[in-house]
Amino acid sequence: MKLSGLLEFLQDLAPFEYQETYDNSGHLVGNPQDEIEGVVVSLDATEDVIDEAIALGANVVLSHHPIIFGGIKRLTGNNYVQRTVQKALLNNINLVAIHTNLDNVYNHGVSTYLAELLGLENTDILSPKPGLEYKKKAIGSGAIGTLSREMDEKAFLDALKSTLDLKTLKHTNLLNKPIKKVALCGGSGRFLLEEAKARNADVFISSDFKYHEFFDAENQIVIADIGHYESERHTIRMLHEILTNKFSNFASHYTKVNTNPVNYL
Length: 265
Fold this sequence. Notes:
Layout (H helix, E strand, L loop, with lengths): L2 H11 L12 E4 L9 E4 L4 H10 L3 E4 L16 H11 L3 E4 L2 H5 L5 H8 L3 E14 L2 E15 L1 H11 L6 E2 L7 E10 L4 H6 L4 E5 L14 E4 L2 H5 L1 H13 L5 E3 L11
Parallel strand pairs: 2-3, 2-11, 3-4, 8-9, 9-10
Antiparallel strand pairs: 1-4, 5-6, 6-8, 7-10
């Protein structure tokens, strides 16, 4: 099977035109006419992931985050982006990214999959884009849903840590009221906080909140910052399962490389 066939499948899964204007999803490096010898699914495309693909005999790395965001003016190996692209080119490895277009779709979306892992019911897009739908579902950012039963705040946060296998999480003051409605966003979700409050969510789960942004909870909602990598790493599992179930003519590998640049003591 040629890479072009996989790109067509990804286009149907989460159309690339639904990515945000700042994004750079799609086929970034390689030749769409290459025969697929194997795919490594990862959150990030790094040098270590390219090495992993080489060792596995795979010639495609499908990552959530694009390795190339802005224009590359030179390839001299001066930074990790240049070195990763160089290594991919030298070893005939295609780089494909499926980023905010996967964030924005409902079916198999980053945030809706996270909601599924947390057992939310009546899930919807948190911030739908007006007039945009795909497969009769709204397009937009984040997700919102309800728990099957109310939970104590501390019990909910403990369950969140356990379910998502978190080493730690940061949160605002507890409000001494039960958690029932849950809003969330995989990745950096500060821009959705006001929408979460407007939709009367009891808790907003996301990442990358700055110090002063925690004050924006205004004692109206609990913010739970679980970390960027931690909020999106389950996307690897989702994509790997989708590819494994769909294609039998090439091997799909779940990366063993932890690409999280943040470490914890």
